[in-house]
Batch of 2 targets.
Target 1
Amino acid sequence: LTTITDEARIALDTLSGRATGLFSPSLRLGVTGLSRAGKTVFISALVHNLIHGGRLPLFEAQKSGRIARAFLEEQPDDAVPRFQYEDHIAALVNDRVWPDSTRAISELRLTIEYESASGWSRMFSSGKLSVDIVDYPGEWLLDLPLLGKSFTDFSREAIEMAALPVREDLSRAWRAISARIDPNADADEMTARRLAESFAAYLKACKLDERALSTLPPGRFLMPGDLEGSPALTFAPLAGLGDRRPPPGSLHAMMDRRYEAYKTHVVKPFFREHITRLDRQIVLIDAMQALNAGPGAMADLERAVTEILSCFRPGRSNFLTDFFSRRIDRILVAATKADHLHHESHDRLQAIVRRLADRAVARANFTGADVDVAAMAAVRATREGTVKQGRETLPVIIGTPIAGERINGETFDGKTETAIFPGDLPEKIDALFDISGPDHRQDSEDPAIRFVRFRPPKLERTAEGVTLSLPHIRLDRALQFLIGDHLA
Ligand code: GDP
């Protein structure tokens, strides 16, 4: 009986809170993507633009003047590190350098005070929305399939992948060490460590390789967070396991136990405590890098997006169905860094992301949430101009390339503004996805897109000396899709 009364009381409190405006609804927004996709920059720019009343014409609540103010508040989860917004903004705005990238999970609460659009909503809503932004590495999501795999399955697959021609050279050192190991020998900490370190070095080498290879689990080997060096991360696949149970006290038994510990103590709690509580999700992708690297990398990116979307599909995996307490109803797949292209190519970039997301949705058999796509730049580091070349007028982008960046044999000093002809994205996008067809980049002597990294922009000041918020491309469109309806 007590429970019922308690529940009833909570329900009543909630209702009366709603009516008196005390209750402030919250929305949990997940921000993910593989490392360097642009998560840190996206969150920093989003918060900066909302707090400083940035130019957001496609964000309806802001455009119609209904947002009274937006400010940071204490986050609800004490055990999760705070997203270091102030440090990131200081780097971007004062030093004009890109902030430190995401290395683990973090959280930030942004509260928006607004006026509802209709009189009816005004009566029932508090006019306050807390957006809990949860930033986490996409690598961690890609661990979900491990939950359904035994140590033997995991070992077999990892060894098969490592021997594929694309990875064979990168995995050589680990495979050499691994080949000398007898899984039935006595467990030994130093052997375990040597194996784990060389396996992790191989996974990291795949990530850094210019072939832009897909990310392989375990995700914490690439992004350890605060678990670096812990036993749950000191394991590696073993060769020659067969189907026998591991002999007690053997290296095989030790690795098996640690693999299971990784699943129980690292993977499951992450999904249970963070992923299953999300309402909205943005998946950032570095489409520019993949386009530069060719169809193989595009296919790989598509595979990663497919796997990421599968993690948000409720009801397929038993583990998640047990724990989903909320349901993600909107997912945005967004390519950032569109400021590397002239605006004429933005729609093409969006069409490419649309194609990629559609194929991923189909392959992941994904239903249950609206999936939209965007081509955007959370921070716009360039402006546009034209350059006359002979009789032709070429559209260019102008920005300050980062010191040491090179193009056409020229090396930049990090101080000089430079005009760059970025090249066009191809009109026919099918070829970009066709691994068997000719590589579109070889159609001409030059690469299709000329890609240098620019420094963050210098912020403009108004006549009154007020510094304007960070410039962007279509950040407002992303915001409208992700939170706009909650401010209606
Ligand atoms: P994370 O690993 O997902 O947190 O990635 P970051 O947000 O740190 O972004 C990685 C790098 O991508 C940055 O250091 C920038 O060089 C670049 N970048 C990210 N977003 C943008 C953007 O909107 N415009 C431009 N020009 N570069 C960006």
Target 2
Amino acid sequence: MTVKIFDTPDVQDFLKTVAGFDQAGGDERAKQIMHRLLSDLYKLIDDFDVTPEEYWSAVSLLNALGHETQFGLLSPGLGFDHYLDMRQDAADAEARRTGGTPRTIEGPLYVAGAPEAEGFARMDDGSDPDAEVMWLTGQVRDVDGTPIAGAKVEVWHCDSKGGYSFFDPTQSEYNLRRTIFTNGEGRYRARSIIPSGYGVPEGAPTDQVLKALGRHGERPAHIHYFVSAPGHQHLTTQINLAGDKYTWDDFAFATREELVVEGKRIEDAAEADRRGLEGVFT
Ligand code: MBD
Ligand code: FE
């Protein structure tokens, strides 16, 4: 079937009716956006001769994504999260807000309300004896390099099997999630465990979409951050642990050169703890 009806007056009038253009109520921006969205999709159906079977299988897929709350997971896979960041970067550049650690995407797995600590936090609940200990230390500075005391550093990451607390029911509440306020020198420290990479659940609706595109759903090992302080722009970012197979092949497009960090292995556990507690990693 190769009928082309999109450009006919009937279809154009119909689109306006569907988008509520001839109704007084509702929201003007919602109408404009819906009209554009529907127009693009109607045109796509016409241009690609989308069959009813294809259309209804797309509806099923959307239902499955919603049922499994996976819109937030497919979103970075389709590049929307990174695209919004690119727009923020462009807005910052235009406003001459330059310097500082680059932003990258939040992802769908943040949970508010993590336990708070001053200066130092142990992030893991100790339930994974096979996991390797990881120390994280850092300093929050403004774009001029001045340390910021009392900055809020929210950190979250997955366990050694790629699971995040709250989404992985085997983990304790807030495992690997902490809010740490920087000390007088703007520094924070955390003792945690090395996270593994993350993979989209096999066979899940998000996985089905990626497979149809010939893509995988893997992310390199990473650690999420929100950094904020009064009078400063909120930063959403991540660090990637260097040497991961997926560092430059992240399904969520979140890797940035400046955010790839090389961990330093310390074989002596007591030495690692001593250095971590002192915040010295040279
Ligand atoms: C993650 O852990 C993540 O950070 C993103 C962006 C998407 C899926 C899982
Ligand atoms: Fe993540």
